[in-house]
Amino acid sequence: MTVHARPQPPRDCGGGVWLKGPVIGRRNWVAGLVAAALPLPASAASAEPAVKVVDIGGGVGLHYLEAGRGPALVFIHGSLGNLFYWSDQIGPFSERFRTIAYSRRYNYPNTNAAVSGYSAIVDAEDLAGLILKLGLAPCHVVGHSYGAFTALVLATRRPDLVRAVTLAEAPAMSLLQHVPPPDTDAGRAMFADVNARMVAPMVAAFSEGRREDGVRVFIDYVLGPRAWEAMSPLDKAETLREAEEWDVMLPHGELFPEVAPAAVSAVRLPTLLLSGARSYPFLRLIDEALLALLPQRRHIVFPKAGHQMWLQEPDACRRAVFDLAGR
Q1: pTM listed for this prediction
Q2: Helices (H), 253-313
């Protein structure tokens, strides 16, 4: 079932500046498929729990925030982000859940050693380790962007650890080859375009140590030509600071590992898909594929939101997860 959420007027979340594409802030790092970060209001900053670290084994430590009691819920941020992406959600969620927001392996403030073969599959293994180490299973898992991709992989491989899953536009690119009619050809064409115009140039740049060139390719692909050039020096610096994950992933790992349609169809978990009507076309097509494959799914589309629906429609996103958890 697809539900189109009632439009809400745009608002400045915690002092962030609304732009046509990203929301740019001056305190937190950039998050998701778009450079997006928001400073915390003073009241929220003072109430924010202390950052902890958990050793999940293999020499890997993951920093996280924790608040509240009750059923466990874990937030997973997207690319170019970190645990602070969820700062404004931790307080409200902690009133109902034992709420965890962590940084993926190579994102601030983690300092893990680089290993070859890094991808969303490794991120899902790390997430499983965190869930087991902190005694969270089975838990609600809420992911945005690459964090949603991580959550999807976890659901296919370790469903025993998951109570329900929320996917906010997971870039499971291989599913572009499995979009149902009438958009089958469009999905396949988009898969080829993403690989030719985004993935291949990013791999080439990062393999040669040209971090800024690689990030430029990504930003210009998702936001449009010369979008990187239009960003301020500070916004560029904040974005580049969070690109360490790609320093590790792109030369010796895989940005978008394959997810088999049969594995997605086998996920028998309550699943919530959140989409922004103004988001990127390739993510809309991926969500079409997920809707066709997932057996227990609900879909909510926010008409005035883009890929950053958690920043643009925070209250509505939260209500949707509360509703999923109450079923």
Answers
A1: 0.88
A2: 261-265, 281-293, 309-312
Residue 282: CB partners within 8 Å, gap ≥ 6? Answer: 171, 173, 176, 190, 194
* Selected residue with higher pLDDT from 180 and 12: 180
Looking up tokens 């990013």, which residue turns up?
202
Name the amino acid, one letter, at 254. E
| Token pair in block for residue 22 | 């990203």
- Can you give the length of the chain in residues? 327
272 DSSP β-pair partners:
166, 298
Question: Is residue 18 within 8 Å of residue 10, measured between CB atoms?
Answer: yes
For position 5, what pLDDT does the model report? Answer: 52
DSSP type of residue 232: -
Strand 297-302 with 2-4, pairing? parallel
In the block, tokens 């009241």 appear at: 43
**Pairing state between β 60-67 and 98-102:** antiparallel
What is the CA angle 33-38-42, rounded to 5? 160
**Strand-pair partners of 297:** 271
Between strands 271-276 and 139-144, the pairing is unpaired
CA–CA separation, 286 vs 170, rounded Å? Answer: 8
Q: Is the pLDDT of residue 55 over 70?
A: yes
Dihedral sign, Cα of residue 192, residue 194, residue 196, residue 200: negative
pLDDT band at 29 (very low <50, low <70, confident <90, very high): very low
Using 50, 70 and 90 to split pLDDT, how confident is the model at 42? very low
